[in-house]
Design goal:
alpha+beta
C-alpha cells in the first residue's frame, strides 16, 4: 500500500510583500523567480472529490506543467476559521496543459474552475518561501519544507507568530473573504465569473 505523501506547508495571510521580501533577504534567503500560474481544477460529475475535501489540479507553472491529486487532512471547517491537520499531495509532471485537460474531460471528469495566481519564490537551504497573490485577495506567505521542524525554524527566523499560521488551501483564504470558490467557474485577474453568469 502506498503511504499518502503529506505536503508540509503553512500560510501567513495579509502580508506586505515588499517588507516580507526585505526580511527574507535579511535572513539569507535568495530570490529565485517570479511566476504566473494558471490552473484548471477537475472533479467527477457528482463532485465526489469535493465532498471528500479533495481535487485534481492541472497547473501550468511557466517552466513546467504538473497534475496533482490534493486532499485536505483533518478538516474541521471550510470557512477558513480553523486549521487542517495537513495536506496530502500526489504530483506528476505532464508536458501539455491543454491536451492533459482534454484527456481528463474525455475520460469523464468535469472542470470545476479555472484560476490564476502570481508567485514570488525565495529559498533558504531547502525551505521555500512563496509570496502568492490571487485575484481579489491580499498577498500571503506560504512556507514549505521537508519537515515541520524546519517550518517552525523558518517562522522563528522571520519573527512571525506561530499562532498566526494557517494550514488550509487557497479556497479557505477566499472563504474568509466571503467568496465561495465552488460558486465560480473562473477566478482570474481580469475578473471572477460565477456559474450563473457564465450560463446567462
Amino acid at each position: 500500500m502506498i503511504k499518502p505523501m503529506q505536503e508540509i506547508e503553512v500560510k501567513f495571510l495579509n502580508i506586505n510583500s515588499d517588507r516580507m521580501q526585505a526580511k527574507l533577504a535579511e535572513i539569507g534567503a535568495k530570490r529565485v523567480g517570479e511566476y504566473f500560474y494558471r490552473r484548471r481544477v477537475f472533479d467527477y460529475p457528482d463532485w465526489r472529490l469535493d465532498k471528500a475535501a479533495s481535487w485534481l489540479r492541472l497547473r501550468d507553472e511557466g517552466d513546467r506543467i504538473t497534475l496533482s491529486f490534493k486532499k485536505r487532512m483533518g478538516v474541521d471547517a471550510n470557512d477558513g476559521t480553523t486549521n487542517d491537520a495537513g495536506m496530502e499531495e500526489i504530483e506528476i509532471e505532464v508536458n501539455d496543459f491543454d491536451k492533459t485537460a482534454t484527456l481528463l474531460l474525455r475520460v469523464g471528469f468535469v472542470e470545476k474552475h479555472y484560476a490564476e495566481n502570481k508567485r514570488i519564490r525565495w529559498v533558504k537551504d531547502n525551505v521555500e518561501f512563496d509570496i502568492d497573490t490571487y485575484p481579489e485577495l491580499e498577498p500571503y506567505l506560504e512556507i514549505e519544507a521537508p519537515a515541520w521542524e524546519q517550518i517552525d525554524k523558518a517562522i522563528e527566523l522571520l519573527g512571525l507568530s506561530p499562532t498566526d499560521k494557517r494550514i488550509f488551501s487557497a479556497n479557505q483564504v477566499y472563504a474568509l473573504k466571503g467568496i465561495k470558490v465552488a460558486e465560480y467557474t473562473r477566478l482570474a485577474f481580469d475578473g471572477l465569473v460565477k456559474r450563473e453568469e457564465e450560463s446567462a
